[in-house]
Write a structure and sequence with these properties.
The complex is a heterodimer of chains A (442) and B (441). Chain A is built from 15 helices and 18 strands. By secondary structure, chain A is α/β, with parallel strands linked by helices. Chain A has 2 domains: 312 residues, TIM Barrel (Alpha-Beta Barrel), CATH 3.20.20.70; 116 residues, Alpha-Beta Plaits. In chain A, the strands form 5 sheets. An 8-stranded parallel barrel of chain A has the order 3-4-7-8-9-10-13-14, surrounded by 8 helices. In chain A, α6 links the parallel β9 and β10. In chain A, α3 crosses α5. By secondary structure, chain B is of the alpha/beta class. In chain B, α15 links the parallel β7 and β8. Chain B is globular. Classes of the chains: A alpha/beta (442), B alpha/beta (441). At the A-B interface, α10 of A face α2, α4 and α5 of B. The structure holds flavin-adenine dinucleotide, flavin mononucleotide (FMN) and iron/sulfur cluster (SF4) (3 copies). The site of one iron/sulfur cluster has 14 residues of chain B, from α3 and α4. Flavin-adenine dinucleotide binds next to α9, α13, α14, α17 and α18 of chain B.
């Protein structure tokens, strides 16, 4: 049986599921409700300097009938008095000594950092998370992502923190940067105990077409917000992977971004995370989603034979390589299951207009399209648009004996040098003549 | 000619009785599960007598954790697979789905439930951590939904049981009573076989417990006895000629067609079904699907006062069944066999039903089916010392489902007087908890 408990940089937690620093961790009442329902840890809503919030704070992207596929906010850090938060942290720890409570912090001066660290340690926090990620409001005041985007500044602040901190320190990174490993390595150099990512991505989720104000609008005006939720998972996964694969990265990673079900969490872990934080999904469905997350992950670990999160963490990393190392001899071709096909012809038009003209349809009314094997480059597009599960499958056509990458070719001096070169990729690739476009109207 | 031809073999039978809630495929399950909103304090849960965590199992289906979905269902309801097919979901979970308030089709909870549990059953997946066996044993009379649920729940607490069943197949009315377009014999058997294998209880078929000696033997061999015997045969209504050839009790008629899966003898052209409950609707639908040309439901009171669910009446009407109301049967006409039914018209007067004088009339027919309620197994139950029955013949139990005789527990139709499979499953499970309390006190 898989053991879900973790020891994350010295922070112990009964399972890897933590609430991210955000509205779900605004107060002790919420954190207690969450722990009671099975959450392993909680990163408290960021504490720091006094602020004022606006009314009308969130906006979202609905995709068709799916609400909140992407979520955006212009909220700042906690607006509740520091002393209230500290009291509640202490109380939560009394009731739940085995769950992880991590204080997220954001202040300005060295003195402020030293003071607030003492405060949260005294309250009984198990760890500290430094919020260098907030991409709206706070950054205009030189905090949040303004720090996360300047590796040198980030390192300096981490060093201040490490001077006094006696509990583990996690540095939370912003994705609003070209190469996330720059601030990540600055955190390593500064002496941090762990990193977490991602915070929200700068965004505008939409514009009100009547009032011309961006969402969410505050009295007819808006500001860029921070984007999160299911839509950001791919960006988060890639950044977690980049940090995990960095040769000098030796800190545990807490994966954040777009986790809604156990599969999302498993992906973060397989790409190098050893705890997972959730915000938007809880804001959408409440703490109750933990009853899907926990058994789902446990069942997967049992089926795959992972005994612990530690063992599972990063298990997919060896398979994430550079493009130049991919096997150029691998060849797949689409295949349509005629029985399952419902005749929507989305595959046809996707390939015809959007890809490689490798699917034909018949004129006699039969709506099942045919793959033209010779033209199919194996791009997967048709299988992605097909609305029927397992109807279009990509079948392997090479014999699996050859494994030649661009890197191999480069080393052997066998890369094509001109477009006429027989070794060039597009050579002999069929495309219809331009004027055919006007003849074949259907 | 009616819509259906008399089925003369199993194949034709299954064509006439095509499943109204067929097993979903992966695609259907994915699309349908994607629609569920994961409501907080979901009304669908509250509407399920076994309180299955419906949003959770649907989300588990959607996130490819079918095994987890099946476990979520069985954790609350040991008859989860059959219930997915036979529950009157329109008045239970699906009727409570919030989508109804938007006039959007509610989530097909029953079919999703059947899909998830069927996957575990087909793969014979082990979903439960069984505690070590303790050295006390329980006898269960009746392998219906109540008895099977009780056996599973007992095993979860460390007790095994032996089930004694009068019929040669398990699952009670799932096998012998529910309409064949809701569940097939095969599906009803699969679930019980799976549970039996997972939990290791035994079922002794063709073993009707009848006499005081039988009961004494059980009392001597077992630490507690659970009664899940359901109801008895169709109740007589005491009118002239009601035993004439061509007269059938509804449950007996249905049992025969569930067992044979083809038409043994002809119903003739015209069938009259007497009654206004769900069994009457079933018997009428089934007569039509067995090839009868004209099927009429005759109910003594008004249409609105029928006990049957609206959707069950709709199902019958869809296959051409007609309803006549406010007519009370007073005599079966015929000499050697049924030729018709004499009715008198009725009207409601101050809450009671009165015959209208001089309004008698006859409807001719070839078959009469009495869906006039089921009797209780009073004679059998009277043999049990101190066991108490109420005025309507239902076994009286306390909150632990314990009868007047402390060693005997009971649940299901025999206690509630006849409800649904899901109620029997819920009660059988609770009774097991009561039995465990008794064994451990
Ligand atoms: C015609 C009809 C249609 C129905 N349709 C539906 C439906 O669509 N959906 C739904 O949810 N519910 C339906 N019901 C109700 C449902 O079938 C019952 O509520 C449910 O089966 C009750 O379960 P039980 O375990 O209490 O009894 P039963 O299912 O009746 O099981 C009792 C078992 O005990 C056995 N038994 C009886 N006496 C003895 C004895 N002395 N010794 C040994 N074994 C004995 C019987 O053979 C039987 O297997 C229907 C009922 C009828 C009559
Ligand atoms: C309304 C809102 C407020 C947030 N506030 C904070 C905050 O105070 N501190 C912080 O570190 N991150 C904050 N975040 C970012 C989240 O902690 C998290 O990094 C981000 O939402 C990505 O995770 P998700 O996709 O699960 O939502 C906030 C996010 C939202 C939606
Ligand atoms: S979610 Fe609550 S706080 Fe927010 S607008 Fe609605 S009622 Fe107000
Ligand atoms: S997309 Fe799929 S279902 Fe639609 S025509 Fe193509 S193969 Fe058939
Ligand atoms: S009420 Fe309907 S939408 Fe809501 S959880 Fe239940 S099935 Fe899903």
């Amino acid at each position: 049986m898989a053991d879900l408990s973790i020891n994350f940089a010295g922070i112990k937690s009964p399972n890897p599921f933590w609430l991210a620093s955000a509205p779900p961790t605004n107060c002790g009442y919420q954190v207690m409700r969450a722990f009671d329902q099975g959450w392993g840890g909680a990163v408290w809503k960021t504490l720091g300097v006094p602020i004022v919030n606006v009314s009308s704070r969130y906006g979202s992207v609905d995709y068709r009938d799916s609400r909140m596929a992407g979520f955006n906010n212009i909220e700042l850090i906690s607006d509740r008095p520091l002393s209230d938060n500290l009291k509640e942290i202490e109380e939560v720890k009394k009731y739940f000594p085995d769950n992880a409570v991590i204080a997220s912090l954001m202040v300005e001066t060295k003195e402020e950092w030293h003071q607030i660290i003492k405060d949260v340690e005294n309250a009984g926090s198990d760890g500290i998370e430094l919020n260098f990620g907030c991409p709206h409001g706070m950054c205009e005041r030189g905090m949040g992502s303004a720090v996360g985007q300047e590796p040198k500044v980030l390192q300096t602040i981490v060093e201040w923190v490490m001077e006094v901190a006696s509990i583990p320190v996690i540095v939370k990174l912003t994705p609003n940067i070209t190469d996330v490993t720059d601030p990540a390595m600055a955190a390593v150099r500064g002496g941090a105990d762990a990193i977490s990512l991602i915070n929200t991505i700068q965004s505008i989720v939409g514009v009100d077409l009547n009032t011309l104000a961006p969402f969410p609008s505050v009295d007819g005006k808006g500001s860029n917000g921070g984007y999160c939720g299911p839509a950001v998972k791919p960006i988060a996964l890639n950044m977690v992977k980049n940090c995990a694969q960095h040769p000098e990265m030796n800190l545990p990673i807490s994966g954040i971004g777009g986790v809604e079900n156990w599969k999302d969490a498993a992906e973060h872990i397989l790409l190098g995370a050893s705890s997972v934080q959730v915000c938007t999904a809880v804001m959408h469905y409440g703490f109750g989603i933990i009853r899907e997350l926990l058994p789902g992950l446990e069942n997967y670990m049992n089926e795959k034979g992972f005994n612990s999160i530690e063992e599972m963490s990063g298990a997919a990393l060896p398979n994430v390589v550079e493009w130049k190392d991919l096997n150029l001899k691998y060849k797949v071709v689409a295949s349509i299951d005629e029985v399952k096909c419902i005749g929507c012809q989305l595959c046809y038009i996707a390939c015809e207009d959007g890809a490689h003209q490798a699917i034909s349809i018949s004129a006699n009314g039969d709506r099942v399209p045919q793959i033209i094997d010779d033209n199919c480059v194996g791009c997967n597009l048709c299988s992605l648009v097909c609305p029927v599960e397992d109807c279009i499958t990509m079948e392997r056509r090479d014999d699996g004996k050859l494994d030649v990458s661009w890197d191999d070719l480069t080393q052997k001096g066998e890369i094509p040098t001109t477009f006429d070169d027989d070794r060039a990729g597009g050579k002999g690739h069929f495309v219809p003549k331009p004027e055919e476009a006007l003849k074949r109207k259907k | 000619m009616g819509e259906f031809k008399k089925p003369i073999n199993e194949k034709e039978f299954h064509e006439n009785f095509a499943q109204i809630k067929p097993l979903m495929d992966n695609n259907q399950a994915f699309y349908e599960s994607s629609r569920c909103l994961f409501c907080y304090d979901a009304p669908c849960i509250a509407a399920c007598p076994t309180e299955i965590d419906i949003p959770l199992f649907i989300r588990q289906i959607n996130s490819n954790n079918l095994k987890g979905a099946a476990k979520t269902i069985f954790d609350s309801n040991w008859m989860g697979n059959a219930c997915g097919k036979v529950c009157p979901t329109e008045v239970l979970c699906e009727g409570a789905c919030v989508y109804n308030h938007q006039d959007v089709k509610p989530i097909e909870i029953g079919r999703l439930q059947n899909y998830a549990t069927r996957s575990a059953i087909d793969k014979n997946q082990s979903l439960f951590d069984l505690p070590e066996l303790k050295n006390k044993k329980v006898a269960i009379i009746g392998a219906g939904p109540a008895g099977i649920s009780c056996a599973c729940e007992l095993r979860m607490a460390g007790y095994t049981s032996d089930i004694f069943e009068a019929h040669e197949k398990p699952s009670g009315l799932n096998m012998y009573g529910v309409a064949p377009y809701k569940i097939t014999n095969q599906e009803a058997a699969l679930e019980v076989d799976y549970l039996k294998e997972q939990f290791g209880f035994s079922i002794h078929y063709n073993r009707r417990v009848t006499s005081e000696e039988d009961l004494e033997e059980l009392e001597n061999t077992y630490n507690a006895i659970f009664i899940g015997i359901g109801l008895g045969s169709t109740r007589k209504i005491n009118i002239k000629n009601e035993n004439l050839k061509g007269c059938f009790g509804a449950t007996e008629f249905i049992e025969k067609l569930r067992v044979n899966e083809y038409a043994e003898d002809s119903l003739g052209k015209r069938v009259i079904v007497l009654g206004g409950g769900n069994t009457a609707m079933d018997a009428a639908s089934e007569s039509a699907r067995m090839g009868a040309e004209e099927v009429t439901i005759a109910y003594r009171n008004s249409k609105d006062s029928m006990r049957a669910y609206d959707f069950e009446y709709e199902l019958a009407k869809e296959v051409g069944v007609k309803g006549v109301f406010n007519c009370n049967p007073i005599e079966i006409i015929g000499s050697e066999k049924v030729e018709g039914v004499r009715f008198v018209k009725t009207k409601s007067e101050g809450g009671s039903l009165e015959a209208i004088e001089g309004s008698e009339f006859i409807i001719t027919c070839d078959t009469v089916i009495f869906a006039t309620g089921q009797s209780k197994q009073k004679e059998f139950l009277d043999q049990i010392d101190k066991l108490e029955l109420d005025k309507r013949g239902r076994i009286v139990v306390n909150e632990n489902f314990q009868t007047g005789n402390p060693k005997y527990f009971a649940a299901g139709d025999a206690v509630n007087g006849g409800a649904e499979v899901v109620n029997a499953a819920a009660e059988g499970k609770k009774a097991a908890v009561g039995i465990v309390r008794f064994l451990e006190s």
